[in-house]
Amino acid sequence: MSRVASDQDVDIDLGQLARAVWARRLRILTITALGAAVAFAGAKIVSPQYRSETRLLIEPRAPAFASTQTNDASAGPLLDELNISSQVQILQSADLIKQVINNLKLYNLPEFDAAANGSALGDILVALHLKKNPLENPPEERVIDAFTQRLQVYQVPGSRVIGITFTSKDPKLAASIPNAMAQVYLTIQSGAKLASNTEATRWLEPEIDSLRQKVSEAEKKVADYRTTHGLLQTNGTTTFTAQQLNDISVELTRVRTDRANAEARAQAVRNALSSGEASDTLGDIMSSQSIQRLKATESGLQSQISDLQTSLLNNHPRLKSLRAQLADIRTQIRQETQKILASIENETKVADLRAKELEQQSDTLQANSARAGEDAVGLNALEREANAQRQLLETYLVRYREAASRADRNSSPADARIVSKAIEQVDPYFPKVVPIVVVAAVATLVLSAIVIMLSELFSGRALRPVGATNVEATNIEEMVEEEGQGEAAPAPASKLAKPSMLTAVVDDEEESKVERAEEAPADDNEFSVSSVASYLTDCRAPLAVSISPSGDNGSAATVALARVLADTGRRVILIDMTGSGYPSELMAENPEALGVTDLLCGEAAFGETIHGDRMSDAHVIPQGVSDVRRAMRGVDRLSLLLDALTSAYDIVIVECGAADVAGVSRLTRSKEIEIVLSLPEIDEAAFVGLMQDFQSAGYERVVLMSGGEEAVMRSPARHAA
């Protein structure tokens, strides 16, 4: 909270909140103990509640003789999430709850009909029409409502397990009700399956009888139709006409193949005869036994002729006789070849005639087959009808046998089983005394601390800086000169009462001229840099203006003050407004760093002018490198800069050097700031004169600071890293 301007935002002092809570620790502990005692008493007064739970696993169940196909078909919907949710709703149904209530006779227990007994508060609320009279509801409905309020049925996440939880004052009853609900649920599910099987058996019996008659009639129609239209079957799928047509087609193909073969053989023999080539290579000729004998005789004659030509002349009668025999044999061979050719040609003619005859038969059978196809359309329709009736009958027979085999109650188990039974609990579910007491104590402790913190905030004690002036830190004793003297003289040092800070207040209400002054103390420790730092820390001053009439020596003490405040953990920034720039030389790494003159001239951004101190955690805004005169023309804007800095830092120190009251007045409009007179060597006349000038200008808090050279010259090893 800045004391520079009265309209600035405030900050919450967390340290003050902690101190306020610690100061009232005994009260908080007393209230906490009282709250814990009240919670303990209340937990002991409340009637204990016991809770037990039964768990069901939803899974497809069937007898051992059931087929695998049936189990697979029924397993689908049972594993569905919607089916599990449906089973949860069935367990909460009114019919199931009524059956459990009747089985356990819960309507006789006062716990389930508390409205019948009534209470004074309930009667008053009913009389004022603020509550409906519970007696207007039927007793059965009241018992069901009480039962439902204590019942909880839920699906265990990520599983097919359903939990049934019940809460009651009686631990035995809390365990028996979930078990009873599970048994009733299993009975209802098994009964539903048994009723379904019985109903299926009763419905299938007349349907099967009717289907048997329909199947018999359909098969009789198929047989009559076949006989009437001559659609006799040679096997399961082919008719007699179709079979004949197929056989003729096969035979016709064979005959045509034989004819073509015979024609080829005859043509080969003709070619051999016409060209005079040897017929030894033709198979038909060489396979003839006559040809073979003639060929053998021809070969013998040729051998004899060859042998005799070596010893006899060509005109020898023996050679002539052999040559005549050879010519006769060759004539016979040619005649036999002609006979073989005629035989092959006859085979060709026979095959041709056979093919024509088969073609005629095929045409006739094709016409008959076409008529049979038209008749088969009606036959196929009758067969489809008969097959459909037969399949339906077989399906009904299978269903009937399965349903009849499950007519017994033990053969139709429910599609669920109990995996965990509820047991009688020893420890109550509610109230848990120890957790309740602990929670109540912690809540009371936290609420008490919050109330104290809120009171501190609303009272303003936890807001910083505090608007009120610290009179005890600013008042000093005035030393009055002896009567009869006309001039003011410094008071003795022994008359000062405040050891760690010095302020001066000049009283101008009675006299227009100040005739009283203060003398600087003789002990330097009372006005040392550390004492002034402690004073600024205690009063939470956001802005301090340091005046150094002695020049650079006083500025060095101001630098020491900033570093001491930074060492205490305060966020400190020093603004160098001196003419010499000596604070910038002591703190800034770069002597030509951008600073306040550059900011006021508009040549640097706000963030570019803030630099770190080379020997502490403090920050500094150096003098800058711009023209000082041109920068001082915009010095009125410096108050906006100070307002922004006081919201970001704990304390802002402005070192003005040897400035006067008029120069300080241009920095800020507020008079509620700390004026620090940095005088390493105390000059009484200068100090008293400056105090009088600032008092006349309206600055009431003026602090004297002396010394500080040793703090400035400390080693920078702490920040070497």
> pLDDT below 50 for ≥5 consecutive residues: which ranges?
1-8, 67-77, 465-524, 709-721
Major sheet characteristics: 7 strands, mixed
The number of E-state strands comes to: 13
Number of H/I helices: 24
Oligomer description: single chain
Instruction: Look at the helices and sheets and give the structural class.
Output: alpha/beta
Instruction: Describe the global form.
Output: elongated
Beta-strand percentage? 5-15%
Lateral strand order in the biggest sheet:
9-10-8-11-7-12-13
Q: Which whole number gives the mean pLDDT?
A: 76
Helix content: 55-70%
Distance between the termini: 33 Å
Radius of gyration: 64 Å
Description:
The chain has helices at 14-23, 25-45, 68-78, 81-91, 94-104, 114-117, 120-127, 139-150, 171-229, 240-275, 283-286, 289-308, 317-405, 433-459, 471-474, 529-538, 552-567, 582-587, 596-601, 628-632, 638-648, 661-667, 684-696, 709-712, and strands spanning 11-12, 50-58, 151-155, 161-168, 416-420, 463-464, 543-547, 572-576, 611-612, 619-621, 651-655, 674-678, 702-705. It has a seven-stranded mixed sheet with strand order 9-10-8-11-7-12-13, sandwiched between helices. The chain has a four-stranded antiparallel sheet with strand order 3-4-2-5. It is built from 24 helices and 13 strands. It has 721 residues and is α/β, with parallel strands linked by helices. The longest helix has 89 residues, at 317-405. The model is unreliable at 1-8, 67-77, 465-524 and 709-721 (pLDDT under 50).
Features:
alpha/beta, disordered N terminus, 13 strands, 4-stranded antiparallel beta sheet, about 725 residues, 7-stranded mixed beta sheet, disordered C terminus
